[in-house]
Amino acid sequence: MHFRYVEWDERFNHQAETPFDTLWDLFQQLLSISGGDVAQSLRWLNDLDDEYEITDQFEDGYGLGDFIDELKERGYIEFDDENSIMVPTAKTDRSIRKKSLEEIFNQLKKGNKGGHKTPHTGRGLERQPETRSWSPGDDISQIDSSGTMMNMLRHSSLDQFNLRESDLEVYNTDHYTSASTVLLIDVSHSMILYGEDRITPAKKVAMALSELIMDNYAKDSLDIIAFGNEAWEIEIKDLPYLQVGPYHTNTLHALQKARHILQRKKFSNKQIFMITDGKPSAMFEGGKIYKNSFGLDRKIVNRVLDEAVKCRRDNIDITTFMIARDPYLQDFVRKLTDANKGRAYYSSLNELGGYIFEDYIRNRRKNVR
Prior knowledge:
The chain is of the alpha/beta class. The chain has 3 domains: 16-88, no CATH class; 129-174, no CATH class; 179-363, 3-Layer(aba) Sandwich (Rossmann fold), CATH 3.40.50. 38% of the residues lie in helices and 19% in strands. The protein has helices at residues 19-33, 38-52, 64-73, 90-107, 145-153, 199-216, 251-263, 298-313, 327-340, 352-363, and strands at 77-80, 85-88, 121-122, 126-133, 169-174, 179-186, 221-227, 231-234, 269-276, 282-285, 288-291, 316-322, 343-346. The chain has a 6-stranded mixed beta sheet with strand order 8-7-6-9-12-13, sandwiched between helices. A 3-stranded antiparallel beta sheet has the order 3-5-4. Helix 1 (19-33) crosses helix 2 (38-52) and helix 8 runs parallel beside helix 9. It is flat, with a radius of gyration of 26 Å. The N and C termini lie far apart (67 Å).
């Protein structure tokens, strides 16, 4: 028998994509960019097919018509009778979030999406090799059967086994804290200025974070706030289709809404993650909006710094992810961070996911206050 060894090619370890899979990956990205407009996304997909002859490589003549039929059959799009248009379904929303989570983790060179724990031991989720005596309220699934049996045999005979409460041994487990996070996403006009799409990576990270929390940390909470001229809460299902508008940047209102949300939470660790690329340029004053796009307006900045101090007093950490490198904007972020005693990252769009995930995991290790 003869063996022939060749250099490993990772591609051999994956099944070939079906025509549907290839088009589905593209369609999900286009759907997010279009704000959930199925018709527009299909037009763009058709344009891409015309230019790059995507469907020409498929066997059995699989075309865009077949793809649309399969989208309907699989329950990814449906007809909205009220508006007479095709719309994405909840199944599509979930798929886009999961795809974002996979992309973020593929970009991370270190770490994983496993459990993240405090230095304390006690009741928790992950078993350690050390054991201790059982106490009322301990999870019986964590009983060390071997250790318990040995304790019992020390005072039992072959004729009669006598199990006592003091014999019971349980494994120590790592203690997990609960975390409540409010994610702020800047949707002001600057997020798409100068030929750079900043909103799509920001949305992708937000979708990945929401999927991570829902899949792995069911007791944690995540609220999402978009902010432009004002701030408003959005549901996780709306994240893929969030779009930039002709807005200024009302950072103050966003922080205020986040603080009010977190004040209602009973979790031990409370945090605000803010993704922005610009300076605060708007705020509400006397029921009206006050705006100034030129430079850093001291009136606006001082109110934002005051709000950062209020968050600190409520034990709410602010972590700012600044995706712009203007020195005067970085100076503002430094002042904001100092006022809150929080953290700041000056990240590129490619690094954004790694920074946010690492910070979320780090914050879950905090001691319970």
